[in-house]
Amino acid sequence: MPVATILAYDLGAGSGRALLGRLTDRGMETEELHRFPNDPVQVGSRLHWDILRLLHEMKQALLKAKHRGESPASVAIDSWAVDFGLLGANGELLGNPYHYRDSHTDGVMERLLADTPRSYIFERTGIQFLPFNTIYQLAAMRQANSPLLREAKRFLMIPDLLRYFLTGETVNEFSNATTTQLYNPLADDWDAELLNRIGVSASLFGPVVRPGASAGQLLPSVAAELGIGAIPVIAAAEHDTGSAVAAVPATERPFAYLSCGTWSLMGTEVERPVMNEQALALNFTNEGGVDGTFRLLKNIMGLWILQETKREWERAGRSYSYPELITLAEQAPAFAAWIDPDDARFLAPGGMTERIAAYCRETGQRAPEGAGAVVRCILESLALKYRYVLDMTERLSGGRFAGLHMVGGGIQNELLCRWTAGAIGKPVWAGPAEGSAIGNLAVQWIARGDLKHIWEARAVIRESFPVTVYEPGEREAWEEAYGRFREMAGLK
């Protein structure tokens, strides 16, 4: 007998989706109910998220469910990390949230680290150093004497904020809170000393709840507006990577995963954060997971570079579909030029092809010419960087991985999956594609008592969604390329 239908909102940096989930004797069944763009908005020199548009689209999903005769038994939200909104004394949002790619954080991390040692921050948070982390966004606002920060009474991350709009509840969720570089996993609380160092009041930060916790129900005003009932809201693993890892259909422990999309996030699941000198030196991170776990992982720039390159060509009047670009990449010469995807120049939007060319010239390589060569350069570079990070994950965790689980929309790029298997010299198990949304649903079912725990959920996911296996090929060629790639990128 099927259990009640539930709804997952999965918000990515480029688009959002709402999926209905049903748990039957045949396994998990999902159905896309609503999909919508999530385009940032440039206002003057600032880049913002259109947060109210996201709320509107979430309401449209609830209306679509109603019109189909569906009444979800619960809903939950997951999204990207680090970004946030601030509420004023009257509970209203103070300005549109900044986009993590906005330039207001330029140089802020470096200035803060000039006065505060990296080791001090890492031993308190276990989080890798990225210039857009929440700590540096807040420090940037304090340094600019932001009136928003002066008037703020409550800090909410993106899923917290959208959940607040729906429920009126102001709680922070654990998996996303840990990404801020302001949460101390050893003390299991916001780090008041770090907040004091950046001049931000700890009173802004509310209680932190674990994935699966009850987080209220739809406000009477929202329910009346949409003509629906007071649906319970659950805090999923609200960082989308936390939800994606929950959906990894692993049978073995330990396992390695790659959540592949605009960003690539690679790592493993551990019981306790790894906060030693080696993790600091390799700039790994320890983010909260489900069922009391942590995600030891590293951020890799990911398919953002390809997405931005494609947008650049489209603006110039040269439109390619992704299948066309993949075909051109396969036809281009192999191992001709590479980039380090995590070089800081590739973070900001615009001018990506020239940045790729400049990087190649600066590292003594011939710049790729033509769309196929550029795309091949990007995808080979990602596959080779995945090999490096996988090796470092084994070193830090002490685990040995039989292969790599890839989840997320990036697995639709079969060429990247195949080349990743070649680069790591191990099988790649690709699936499910909607990992974050499926993990979101799984946490809801566990919270509702329909599944016992995360490993039962993973077993059901494994039986419910196809997994494509990519075996490694051209081992000698990839091994030789990896040595040259490390030398070119200066990776030890």
Q: What is the count of helical runs?
A: 19
**Secondary structure: helix percent:** 40-55%
CATH class label of the largest domain: Alpha Beta
CATH topology of the largest domain: Nucleotidyltransferase, domain 5
Q: Runs with pLDDT <50, length 5+?
A: none
Give the spatial strand order of the biggest sheet. Answer: 17-18-16-15-19-20-21
Average residue pLDDT: 96
- What is the overall shape? globular
Written account of the structure:
By secondary structure, the protein is an alpha+beta fold. The protein has two domains: 6-234, ATPase, nucleotide binding domain (Nucleotidyltransferase, domain 5), CATH 3.30.420.40; 249-431 and 452-492, Nucleotidyltransferase, domain 5 (2-Layer Sandwich), CATH 3.30.420. The chain has 19 helices and 21 strands. The strands form seven sheets. Strands 17-18-16-15-19-20-21 form a seven-stranded mixed β-sheet, with helices on both faces. The chain has a four-stranded mixed β-sheet with strand order 3-2-1-6, sandwiched between helices. The protein is globular, with a radius of gyration of 22 Å. The mean pLDDT is 96.
